[in-house]
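Example record

The entry below shows one chain as it appears in the dataset: sequence first, then C-alpha cells.
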Amino acid sequence: MPPSIQAPSAVVMVRPHHFHPNPETAGDNSFQARTTGLAADDIARHAFAEVTAAAAALQGAGVRVHLFDDRGERHTPDAVFPNNWFSTHAGGHVAIYPMCAENRRRERRSDVIELLKAEYRVQDVIDYSGLEADGMFLEGTGAMVLDHIHRIAYTAQSNRADPVALERFCTHFNYEPMAFATADTEGRACYHTNVMLCVGTDFALGGFDLITDPARRHAVRARLRETGRELVELSPWQIGEFAGNALELQGSQGRVLAMSTRAAASLSPAQRAVINRSATLLPLAVPTIELAGGSVRCMLAGIHLARRDIFQAKNAVTA
C-alpha cells in the first residue's frame, strides 16, 4: 500500500526515569489508577523497561523512533506522553500546546524541537502555551484526534480542550473543528479524545456511544464515513481497555496499528479483520504506563514532517 499522510513513519518517545501516576491529573482522568499496590521504585523501573521495549518493537517494524530520556526530574511524571505538548504537520509546521496540570508544563523541552529542526524541514513553530495564563488549555493530539488527510480535528469537550484554543489551532492549521460532548457509564467526560477515538487511513476505531447527543453522534459517524473510513465500534468496556488509544504508523513493510497488548486482546475477530485489511496490529506491552491513564497512542508523538536530504543521504551511505 502507498504511504499515507495519516500514518507517520517516525515518532518521538520519552523514556521515563521517575514515572508514577500523576496526582495533578487524577481529578478528571477516570482511566488513571488511584492505587497501584507497587513500590515507587518498582513502578519507575517497569515503566522504563516498557518504553525501552516498545521503542525497540517499533524500530523492528521499520518505524523511526527518536527516543529521549526524561531529565530525571521527579516532578514530570507524565513526560512519557509527549504527544500532549507538541504536534507536527505536513508543510513544516509545529505546534506547542497549553497544558492544564502545572507539572505537565515542565515537559516542554527545547531539545526535542531542536531535533525536529535539525533532522526535518520545519518552517514555523506556533506556540500556544501562553494561553495557560488565561486558563485556556488544548492538550495536543490527546485533546484532538486529527484527520490529517481531510483536515478535521475531532475533539471531545473537556477542560483540556478549550473551545477558543481549538478555534485558534484550527484557523492557523486549516482544520475543521468537530467538537462533541462525551460521558462514560458513570457520567464522566473523556478527559482526552484519543482514549475513545483513533482515525486511521481506511478505518476509525471509536467509542461513539460515549457521544452524548444523538444528533452529534450521528454527525461524527457520518463525517468519518464520508471520508472513506470503515467504522469499528468499540464498547465502553473496550474503551476502558484502551482499545481507542491507538496510532497508525508507516513501517518498512506497510502500515501498522500500534496499541497496547491489553487493548489488542479486547478486540473481536471481526474488528481485527477490519484493521488487518489495511494495517498490521502491533501490540506493545505497557501495563505500568497504563496506570497513569494513558496508553500507547499517548506515548507516541507522530512526525508529519519531511526529512532533510542530508540525513537521507547519510542513511543511504551507512545502510
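Notes for this example: The radius of gyration is 18 Å. Residues 5 and 139 are 22 Å apart (CA to CA).
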